[in-house]
Structures are given as structure tokens and as C-alpha cells.
Amino acid sequence: MMLPSTRVRFSFSAHSDVGLERKINEDSFMAQAPVFLVADGMGGHAHGDVASQTVARVFDEHIERGAPSTPERILDAIHSSNDAVRDLSAVDDYGTAVSGTTLAGVAFVDAGDDVGFHWMAFNIGDSRVYTWDGRTLAQLSVDHSAVQEMVDAGLITAETAEQHPERNVITRAIGADEFVDADVWLLPASGRHSFLVCSDGLTKELGNAEIAGLLAAHDEPPETGRSIAQVLVDAALAHGGHDNVTVVFVESVLGDRETDGHNPDDHGPEDSLNRVHA
To answer: Domain PPM-type phosphatase, which positions (predicted)?
Structure first.
């Protein structure tokens, strides 16, 4: 992506699987610069798959491809997604009859002349955004879930939360309320950044240490030809695959167009993925 005085290069992969126990994949994702996101339709609710597809469609309609977005446009896409998913439910629907989906992702944005280019991370629900620096996997987003609230209140430990009977209860979702409250972070986009965005089908099966180990191993040239997203999804399936599992992994390098040594027309093998719905 060419910028006024520099350029940013993206490489990314995305993969989704229905899992070993579900009949329908209610996950959707978008992987096309400047937006990379995962939406996980609420299991047991009406039209969970359509709800997540709707989010991907609305973002695709709102965000120009191949150019930096803005924080305002991303927020507008989030709120428009909420309106569109709410339109899937009838006025008198309640409980599991209400359509809903989680949403987590990152977007490359121009935050203004005085602020510059940033990565904007956003989250609603319990799909997650992680940062990866080649050694450490750090969860950037905070789950909007009943068990996370218990952890925050000191009632249970994070380890207990992983096995708690209410671990699937989320407290925020796209489509659940008239107004959606998204958590948002802005990270300066200088140098190199790597993000992992995933549905809870990954994190239910693999701990952070296991995910980090797979990411670190994949820093070496892969012999199988599988992308890191597919490696992570396959690992979740090997651990049980009890839910739909979706992974988007994106790396960016912001550098001067005169000195970064890359041809602007060159694209890595994963750049052809564009936006995919599973």
C-alpha cells in the first residue's frame, strides 16, 4: 500500500473450519487491507451464520480496499453492522431468537495529520485480538463475557474461567442492543507489527503458550506449504475441534519506499486471499 511519503507492506493468511461437532460454520472473516476481522455468530441463536456474514458484507461496503481507512469509518462500519444484524430479527424476538455475532479485528488507519498512521484494534464479544512480536503472544482485547467479569471482580481465577460452565455467555454482541459499545485501541504503525485475530474455537482448544509455540515454529520457512492460519486451525481440530474455528494472521512493515528494498508490485503468496467467507 503506497502512502504519501512511504509504503506499508502486508502479508496475511486466513482459514476457517466448521469443526468436528458443528453442522454449520457460523464464523465469517474478512482479510483484505486495510481491514482484518473475525465475526462469530452466536451459537444457538437465530441466523448466527447470516449475522456474521452480514458484518463482513457491511465492512466490505463501507471500507475502501487498498487504502488506509480512518477511525471514524471503522466505527461507522461497526455501528452499521449492528443495525444490519438487528434488522435480521423481528421486533418481538427475544432470547435465542435474536440474531447476534461477536466481532474482533484490526484496521490500518490514518488518524489525522497530527497523529499519523495507526493500527486500530476493535472488539465486541469474546473473539480475540492478540499481538505477536516473534517471542511473546499478548492478548490485546478483553473478553466481554460473564466469566471475564468474574475474573475482573476477583471471584474466580483465569484458569478456572477456562472450565467454568458459563464460559460461553457473552455480555456484548453485534445485534444484541440498539447501540453497540466497542472496545477500541490505537497502536502507532511504525516498524513491524503482527496480529492474530480469532474466534473462541481456537482459544477453547489451545492455550496461549501452545499458540505462541506454533507461531514461533512457523517463523521458519514452512515445509508443508500451509499458512500459519491453517496450522493454527488444524491444531485446534487436533485438540477436539468442538466449535467452529477461524484464524486471521496479519503482519505489516511500514518503511520508506526508497529504502525498504521491495517492489510495490510484488505480493507474497498469502496476499491473494483477499476477503473470504467460510
So the answer is: 11-252
Residues of the chain scoring pLDDT < 70: 43-46, 90-98, 219-224, 256-278
For the record, the C-alpha cell of 133 comes out as 512480536
pTM of the predicted model as reported, rounded to 2 decimal places: 0.89
Eight-class DSSP state of 124: E
Those residues whose C-beta lies under 8 Å from the C-beta of residue 264, and which sit 6 or more positions away, are: 2, 7, 257
Residue 191: domain span: 7-136+173-259
Look at residue 167 and tell me if it is in a domain. no
- Do 144 and 123 form a contact (C-beta atoms < 8 A)? yes
205 in the Ramachandran plot: left (φ > 0), alpha (ψ -120 to 50) or beta? alpha
Cis check for the bond before 269: say yes or no (omega within 30 of 0).
no
Write the CA distances from 2 to 71, 116, 262, integer angstroms: 19, 14, 12
